[in-house]
Amino acid sequence: MATNSNQASHHPVISGVYDGTSWLESNGGETSTLVNPSTEEILCEVALATAANLDAVVAPATVAFTSWSQTPFAERAEHLHRIARAWQKSGEEIAQSVSREMGMPITISRLSNWQASARNFSYYADLLLTQAQENIRPAESFDGETHVFANPVGVVAAIAPWNFPGVLMTSKLAPALAAGCTVVLKPAVENALTAHLMTAVFEEAGLPPGVVTIAIGGAEFGQELVKDERIALVAFTGSTAVGRNIGAIVGERLGLTNLELGGKSAAVVLDDADMDVVAVGLPPLAFRNSGQTCFAQ
Amino acid sequence: MEKFSGVYIDGVWRSGSTDVITVVDPSTEVSWAQIGVATRSDVDDAVRSADNAFRTWAQVPLDRRIAIVQRFTELVREHTDELVRIRCRSMGSPITSSKTLSNSNGLLEMYLETVQQVQFGQVRSDQHGSAYIMRRPIGVVAGIVPWNVPVRNELKKIIPSLLTGNTCVLKPSPESPLTGARLMDLFAEAGLPPGVLNLVTGGADIGEALVTHPGVRKIAFTGSTATGARIAELAAPTFKRIQLELGGKSAAIVLPDANMSDVAPNLLAFGFGNSGQICASLTRVFVDRRYQEELGDLLAEGAKRHVLGPALDPSTTLGPLVSKRQQERVLGYIQQGIDEGATLRAGGVNKPRDTGWFVEPTVFLNVNNSMTIAQEEIFGPVISVIPYDTVEEAIREANNSQYGLHGAVFSEDAEYALNVAMQLETGTCAINSFDLPINAPFGGVKGSGIGRENGLEGFDSYLEYHSYKIPEGMIPQLQADSGPQYGGESNGD
């Protein structure tokens, strides 16, 4: 968990702004304290990104888009496979980090923040290689033919919550990178330490500078980020209320959104169902991650 | 004065409010028809009717939906002359170029053919199990259309809605509302069940009522960028799907090796066609400075060849603009072009006829891309020729626009032209031509909109993916039900 403070503290302060090459020195603004919810032990302070940092994360992603979007499919797929391998190597460390940050039991954290997260990259790498670069169709009443391309939309702002950080960040990152988009990632403040581990993964995998930048900030920074005209698509997972707000802001500037919001999912137990099976099947989904799952039943 | 009803709900014509829209023939300035206007409570009823109808229409098998649209296609063919006349008298498009209703028949056939390629169901498996993935209709679609291409505009919203199992509430434009009303009758005659398609004629207030209505699940809009942005903002709180086909300021890049006499006819067709009232018009022409005079002469000759006259006159090649307001607006832009220092080579601010809202086809040379006439969508017969010194400069300046709808590149070397085309920030681009085949996905980037119409991709925004985790034993049955032919959800009785 995270609490904001302006008070000086003796805990280490980590950067909240990664410009696609390195984590930047703090500008001395507001910080947030990360606390291990299992032990209430203070983990660190995070220097939060502010509107003044917007350029530091958006500009490199905009520059990198030009070359990343033109990188051949096979080469992009190879980059993603390298990330998957590097993530596999660091997986235990990432899983431990998430558990410390938000209290997820380590057994679930390993499956989700380690295995499933690494797999997202290899999955989209393989999927990319099955996609045709262009679709050619006869031009019917005209001479010639039409070449239809599915081109990347541009810079993506990926905003993820803290409940399943690994999977929710990588299920935005991996398809965006595979498609040829660059990404400004805004993880939950709670996951600042994990975000630092992730950039080590990207660097080990040799991802070109600027292809992924990271800004860890509060709601106000998030608002500035989605307003930015340079962001082509906002991919968001979080609450319905925030999603509604993002939709209006991005819509007004004719940007694109991809919103995965809240739920109150129903399980319908029909009268012929085997209650023993139901009793075993339901609790894991309802209680997993202490109920902090958007499709909990 | 001919009278039309403008409110059609659940298969019944209604009187609507006490207001009416008077339709004035832009060629003659004679008021010739009146149509009723919907109230906000009509909008509620229309949405409720469409929502009720959705429950059954979404279950109708695809082949049945196709059969109804096929029958409708025949009826449009039978009623073409009537629809053409309404169109000519409503918005001034000349009868000589309106005969096919802008290839509405081709559009219908394209939809009927491509909907059969949509994969409505598929089974996907991995080591953790299997999912049955369905593409299902969304619900009530509000189709909000402009006046510039009557019949075709309406069909681009109605047909993909109906074929995919959605229901529709159509709001035609107040400038040209009559064809929308006539189409309701043709759909009823084709056997479309009541409530599947409803009509609420009206202005911006009726549009806004639809956009904010909680029962509407998707907005399909064609119109201005300003209105599109407003729709996207207003539709967001209710999480509607939106598909916006907006304005353009499309560039034609004429590469130095192009043959100017091949290029000019293409530019004339798409610069002045429909009196420039087409969103994809090629209104900025980038040409190597050395060939500007040559191309300018050809364009000016083409402009002068046009015969301006009443839409119904068979000798007319260029009709009036839709309204006095548009005429004034376009003339204002032409004056601004002159004031900002562009060279007027043909046309100008004179009103060529005493009656009717005509504007002369106008060609400007020596336009700078930062001038108002190069940056704003004029929606009139005005071509701005912008000379360039290097191709890189032409590409950069072409992209220096809030819009990104269409474009064209002309060269003897088609491969080089395609390479240049791929550097343009546009949804579509034509090589050595102006138009786009009807089965190609059409739509813009940047301020030109969101989403695509036409072709197989045109159905994407009308369908929602639904995934079902299934036990392995069900796979064979579901695979048998899947595939392109499976469009309905048979309820088994």
Could you describe the 3D structure shown?
The complex is a heterodimer of chains A (297) and B (493). Chain A is built from eight helices and twelve strands. In chain A, the strands form three sheets. A six-stranded mixed beta sheet of chain A has the order 3-10-9-8-11-12, with helices on both faces. In chain A, strands 1-4-5-2 form a four-stranded mixed beta sheet, covered by helices on one side. In chain A, strands 6-7 form a two-stranded antiparallel ribbon. Chain A folds into two domains: 49-130 and 150-262, Aldehyde Dehydrogenase, Chain A, domain 1 (3-Layer(aba) Sandwich); 269-297, no CATH class. In chain A, helix 7 links the parallel strand 11 (231-237) and strand 12. Chain A is of the alpha/beta class and 297 residues long. The longest helix of chain B has 18 residues, at 40-57. Chain B is globular and about 70 Å long. Mean pLDDT of chain B is 95; it is low at 484-493. The A-B interface holds A 137-142, 144, 146-149, 243-244, 246-248, 250-254, 256-257, 259, 261 and B 103, 106, 110, 225, 228-237, 239, 242, 244, 246, 418, 422, 431, 433, 435-441, 446-447, 449-450, 455, 457.
